[in-house]
Amino acid sequence: MQFVRQKDIEKIFKDKKVAVVGNAKTILERSHGIEIDSHDVVIRMNNAMPKSGMEDQLGTKTTIWTQGKEKYFQATEDQWAQLKGVIWMKPKGLTKSGDADWESITKRAEEDWGPYEFGLWRYGRDIEDRVHEYVGHPPSTGIRIIDFIHQYTLATEVSVFGFDFFGARGTYESWYRTPSHRPHQGEKEFDIFRKFGFIEKETGWWTKIV
């Protein structure tokens, strides 16, 4: 493991087909695992590493893990080993009381993650502020990483699986937890997502060619 800069993370996407895998429970209704794993870069979020028995729906590949809570850093040895990047999604100044701060994450990285070959990067406060401004509400991890790919990388194709935009078109449930409220403004994020140029290829699978 090594600490890297934004431009190092951007290089992972260059000329690549990218899959962003969300956590909506609806992802379990489709068998998109083969399609997900066919992408060059597969991004997963928070506590949504694939579990045994979910390969048909979720696939098995993970290239980049976007993370916002230290307690969610739970993965198998094989999952850690295949990572090329970990993005800590808590910019400076946004850590809430009780959350792990950057110091504790870097300490854990130095103590536990040394044998692995991925790069660890902290998502920038300037990017967060820009996304927050046009979302008008604290943005989700999903819309932040989709914005990052859209604004900063040279990916050739981006596909999105397992997003229902927090119940923008129904009742939101995550496949690994059921929140008691909608944590973000799904309707607004869905509008922004469509403005980025994504089209629905089939139910639960959105794509755009860059």
CATH class: Alpha Beta
| Secondary structure category | alpha/beta
CATH architecture: Alpha-Beta Complex
Unreliable parts: 168-172
Q: What is the number of independent domains?
A: 1
* SSE succession: EHEHEHEHEHEHHEHEE
Strand coverage percent: 15-25%
Q: Give me the CATH superfamily.
A: Glycosyl transferase family 29
Radius of gyration: 16 Å
Helix share of residues?
25-40%
Within the CATH hierarchy, at the fold level, what is the topology? sialyltransferase cstii, chain A
Number of helices: 8
Instruction: Tell the overall outline.
Output: globular
Head-to-tail CA distance between termini? 30 Å
Describe this entry's structure for a reader:
The protein is 32% helix and 18% strand. With 210 residues, the protein is an alpha/beta fold. Strands 1-6-5-4-3-2-7-9-8 form a 9-stranded mixed sheet, with helices on one face.
In short:
The chain has 210 residues and is an alpha/beta fold. Helices cover 32% and strands 18% of the residues.
Sequence-ordered SSE layout with sheet pairings:
Blueprint: E1 2-3, H1 6-13, E2 17-21, H2 33-37, E3 41-45, H3 55-58, E4 64-67, H4 77-82, E5 85-88, H5 102-112, E6 119-122, H6 125-135, H7 141-152, E7 157-161, H8 186-195, E8 199-202, E9 205-209
Parallel strand pairs: 1-6, 2-3, 2-7, 3-4, 4-5, 5-6
Antiparallel strand pairs: 7-9, 8-9
